[in-house]
Each structure stands twice: as structure tokens, then as C-alpha cells.
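So, can you check these C-alpha cells?
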Amino acid sequence: MKMYRAILLTAAVLLFLATLAALSLPYGFFTFLRIIVCGVAICVAIQVRDSVVALIGLLMVAILFNPLVPIHLPQQTWRIIDLVTAAAFIRLAFKPSGKQDQRQF
């Protein structure tokens, strides 16, 4: 498994954990999540420069999850955003693209 796939899948798992209603996660987890997701989105955006749609989506994710100027939304909204972002990361991790598979992270 390539390094970028492992990183994308790790971020997807963290996003999925953030959506679980049963867990009472401390605020520090969500700050850690913002840092990881923002960083992963920027790194993967650099890797998938050839796809404009993916690039714009990843830059929007990086802005939404940026830890420096947090965007405050209701918890239910964040759960939806977390699930959609996790699904997008999983999709990117398993995207069958010859150019993307040749690159190293």
C-alpha cells in the first residue's frame, strides 16, 4: 500500500471516529483531527494536481478543517462533513489512476 493511501485511510478513520455519537471525545481530539485532516488535504492536493475537481475539493477541505482559523459549526453539521470527507478520502485512496499510483508521497 502506498504511503498516501495509508495517510488518507488514517484520516478517514479519524473522521469516522469523530462522527460516533456514543463517544465523548475531548476537545483536544478535534483539534488534533483538524491538524491531521488539513495537512493530509494539502499534501494530497499537491499529489493530485492533474484533477481540478479533486484539487478544488481538497483545498476546500483544508480551509474547512484549518486549525489556525477554526470554522465553528453545529455538531450535527460537523458529523455530516466528517462522513463526507472520510468517504472522499477513501475514494481518493482507492482511485484507479495510473499517474496517481506511480507517485510516491
Residues 3-18+29-95 form one domain.
